Amino acid sequence: MDLAENLAKVKERIDAACSRAGRDPSSVTLLAVTKTQPPEVVTEAARLGLTVFGENKVQEAKHKIPQCPGKVTWHMIGHLQSNKARDAVDLFSMIQSVDSFHLAEEINKRAEQAAKTTPVLLEVNIVGEASKFGYKPDALLGDLERLNSLPRIEVHGLMTIPPWTPIPERVRPVFRGLRELKEQCEQRLGAPLAQLSMGMSGDFEVAIEEGATMVRIGTALFGQRRKAEV
């Protein structure tokens, strides 16, 4: 694996997608997904200038993060069980996978106990895939105001994981749907939501063209995942 070369290629693709969409590349954050990657890989990625990293599992993050550079930022991007909310609040600067009011309440409670405020993204299951977590759009709109009223969480935007397809263009409607839902949320709240976390290694260019502010890239940077040690 040549991480420096892979990173350069990903940045080129981000720049090209932004150019097609008439966007400034600085408006897109590259989040490096380090699931199953060891601390030394994170250290190398940080040395190359990456600053935002994502983990899918609290248990792995709890083991890994203390061994990684302290200057980087960590986001929880995988499904979060409410009984892991305390650890998630301690470990992560943002939780991107809030998929129910019950989970949001638990994060709010744990953040209160920790005397901190936790930024979150609301995960949306745009097409209603049975195998995926996330709010259905109507349910999200129904919960939005009470989610926003929880004093110890800050709703910064939305996140989605689209259906897998070898043809990225097929998921453009999913990304467009999330952007349109964000606009509806902003109208209801009367305030902007800064973040749209959407797009991964196979489809991030389409996501950027549809307004992604954060793309979650693992395989395109680090190659195929290795077997987890924890």
Total of domains:
1
Q: How much helicity do the residues have?
A: 40-55%
- For this structure, the CATH topology is TIM Barrel
Radius of gyration: 17 Å
Q: What is the beta-strand fraction?
A: 15-25%
Largest sheet: 8 strands, parallel
Structural category is alpha/beta
Order of helices and strands: HEHEHEHEHEHEHEHEH
Q: How many H/I helices? A: 9
Summary of the model, kept short:
With 230 residues, the chain is of the alpha/beta class. The chain is 42% helix and 17% strand.
Q: Can you describe this structure?
A:
The protein is α/β, with parallel strands linked by helices. It has a single domain (3-221), classed as Alanine racemase (TIM Barrel), CATH 3.20.20.10. Helices cover 42% and strands 17% of the residues. It has helices at residues 3-21, 39-47, 58-64, 85-91, 101-113, 137-149, 172-189, 204-209, 219-222; strands spanning 29-33, 52-55, 73-76, 94-98, 118-123, 153-159, 195-197, 214-217. Strands 7-6-5-4-3-2-1-8 form an eight-stranded parallel sheet. Helix 4 crosses helix 5 and helix 6 (137-149) packs parallel to helix 7 (172-189). The longest helix is centred in the first third of the chain and has 19 residues, at 3-21. The model has no long low-confidence stretch (mean pLDDT 96).
Attribute tags:
8-stranded parallel sheet; TIM Barrel; 8 strands; alpha/beta; 230 residues; 9 helices; 17% strand
